Amino acid sequence: MDERELLILGLLMSQSQHGYQLNDFIERNLGRVTDMKKATAYAILKRLDAAGYVEVKFEQEGNRPPRQVYAITSAGERAFGELLRSSLSEANPSVPHGSIGLMFLDHLPPDEQLGCLERKLAKLDELLRLTELSPRHGHGIGVDLSIDHRISLLRCECDWLRGVIVRIRGQA
Predict the structure, then answer these.
(1) For the residues 109-119, what does the mean pLDDT come to?
(2) Minimal CA–CA distance to 102: which of 121, 81, 116?
(3) DSSP symbols for 75-101
(4) Which alpha helices (DSSP H) does 90-141 contain, by range?
(5) Backbone angles phi, psi at 55, to 5 degrees
(6) What pLDDT does residue 18 have?
(7) pLDDT band at 32 (very low <50, low <70, confident <90, very high)
(8) pTM score over 0.85
(9) Can you list the pairs that 156-159 forms with residues at least 24 positions away whose Cβ atoms lie under 8 Å?
(10) What are the φ and ψ backbone dihedral angles of 15, each rounded to 5 degrees?
């Protein structure tokens, strides 16, 4: 399992929901901390159902087509607890996006290196600005901590990239 499964199970811990509700909540409220796509969420729900971690019921209102409502099972609650403990206590040595490209930076002339990195910095600065505008969640500290973590990482990456740009300019 991965953190995307933790996210889906965690959202189902509070209440049963249909897929559209889950995706809408993720998009509206958690877009600053996850980039999960709708198709991925549905694939994960299907996988969690096959594993017995969620159950699917059909609900129909009026003449509308029936929709699937997902609820966490007791096995899903146990899996959620295990995933949560693992997520909070493990160190994952993930490789940040762009690290491979940096290895081959020398294949570009310095002015092109600077242009690419300055464009990246502008995008990161804008992402940081938007993330800093995220409203406080107000229900416990978890969501706010996740956003604060994202802000800290973005600030660190921006600062590091500014230093790299200064370093390349010094060598040019």
Answers:
(1) 95
(2) 116
(3) HHHHHHHHHHHHHHH----PPPTTHHH
(4) 99-103, 110-132
(5) -120, 150
(6) 83
(7) low
(8) no
(9) 157/96, 157/124, 158/121, 158/124, 158/125, 158/128
(10) -170, 155
